[in-house]
User: What shape does this take?
Amino acid sequence: MLEKFERFTQRAKSFQPKVSIRKRGQIALNSGAIQKFGLEKYNYVVLFMSKDRQKIAIMFTNDRNEEGAIKLLKRQGNFSFSAKSFCDFYGIDCSQTRSYDAEWIAKEHAIVIDISKK
Assistant: This one.
């Protein structure tokens, strides 16, 4: 009877794509974002802030010479990068870790998060 079913074996992983701004200004991408958006093929990010300062865009690239490029640190289960200067410049509170839903903008190779939603 179970031959028409698919066994689920992916325990302890989140498939909801999330971006976290951690203490001290590190930005992390969970395994859901990495898998859903195919981020393993990128090595750098470039950060953008919306003019109303409500959203952050993270553009993914492999061009280390791209203006503002930051090296993407790849670890088992998540990717991260340092964004302390970005957080300081825009006054983003990073005194405690906060997570946000990630929206993929395929045309721009970018993730957008709404930091006004806490």
Q: What stands out?
A: The longest strand covers residues 55-61.
